[in-house]
Amino acid sequence: MTVVPYKNDVAPKKEQVARMFDSISGKYDFLNHFLSLGIDIRWRRKAINFLQTDKPKLILDVATGTGDFALEAMRLHPEKIIGIDISEGMLEVGRKKIKSRGCEGFIELKSGDSENLPFEENKFDAVTVAFGVRNFENLERGLSEIRRVLKPGGRMVVLEFSKPEKFPMKQLYSFYFRWILPKIGKAVSHDATAYTYLPESVQAFPDGQDFISVLSRLGFKNTACRPLTFGISSLYTATK
Which among 132, 178, 192, 195 counts the fewest CB atoms within 10 Å? Predict the structure, then answer.
């Protein structure tokens, strides 16, 4: 079953997701860091470290949001990073952040659909996605598009929430995600839906080896999954 932000809305998932992120874009960065206790910053840093030896020159950041992953990728000293997202509200926040850090000449944020990427085949040395693949309306189509625009041998790095499996983190995580996070998210963002959708979408996402199986079926090679922080999130890597 497809999990959508607005259950009584007949609009496609991607339209609902874009509207939801437009609604919370002004509070997104604060809530992201606050609700994860800042751990999300370390997760992005660790993910980018997996691209250090590749030295990618041209990077695509899919579902870039406010550009945090793209900014972290600047540590790789690429020639260009292109971020793409369906939420213009999130992109506008990201553009201001990029300008304030003097990175306009290196990072370009564009409006676009991750399931229909506006780029030719074999273009990018690396593709990154942070907490975005579970928002794809069609997961396999989005991943296939990423593989299409990757150069042969290029690497994809995906960060995504996952579900801890061991006691007591499994129980603590479930309680926090179900009862605490939605209340804080609603109070700060004034959006009653966004932080209810988050745990629901994480629960529905095929994480761990299930996600690796999807990648392998689509033709990705050298697939690997590395749980982070007791399995609260996972770092996936694969090559074309």
Answer: 192
Number of domains the chain is built from: 1
- Residue 37 sits in a domain of what CATH number? 3.40.50.150
* CA neighbor of 83 nearest in space, from 50, 102, 47, 58: 58
**pLDDT score of 169:** 82
Torsions phi, psi for 2 (to 5 deg): -80, 130
CA distances for 136 relative to 17, 76, 152, 159, 188, angstroms = 9, 27, 24, 14, 25
Over residues 177-191, the pLDDT tens digits come to 888 888 887 887 888
Largest Cα separation within the chain, whole Å, is 47
**Positive/negative CA dihedral, 150, 91, 233, 218:** negative
**Secondary structure string (H, E, C) spanning 144-205:** HHHHHHEEEEEEEEEEEECCCCCCCHHHHHHHHHHHHHHHHHHHHHCCCCHHHHHHHHHHHC
* Alpha carbons 160 and 80: distance in angstroms, whole number: 24
Q: How do 150-161 and 221-228 pair as beta strands?
A: unpaired
